[in-house]
# Entry
Amino acid sequence: MTTRATRATRPTRLASTPAAPASPSAETSPETGPAATHQAEPSTLLTLSGSGTKNASAFKAGDEWTLSYTFDCTKAMAAVGGKGNFIVFDKEDKLVNELDKSGKGSTQQHTAGTHQLQIISECEWTVKVTG
# Structure
């Protein structure tokens, strides 16, 4: 039977190097590049409120813009207890067409250029365009 002698080994001492982070961060990761920047809030291009029919001032928008709106017909239609119309045109294009006592919503638009909204309603309403 052969016995084998084992020799105790000493730990090898390595040159001092900074420890690598446990997980890459967004700021330093070569895979993701620099930290992601937050997109700026869309700017307000138009804000209107009123009742009845209104032709808005023209505004310029890029490829992506949003029309947000509210309407309330409870006062205007109180005598008949019914629903009111709320319609928004951009020149000849109908963007919104609602028939209700009240409502709110938004619609994404994808046409750059100069736009001019026309609001047609017997109700109280607000519109806001951002882009």
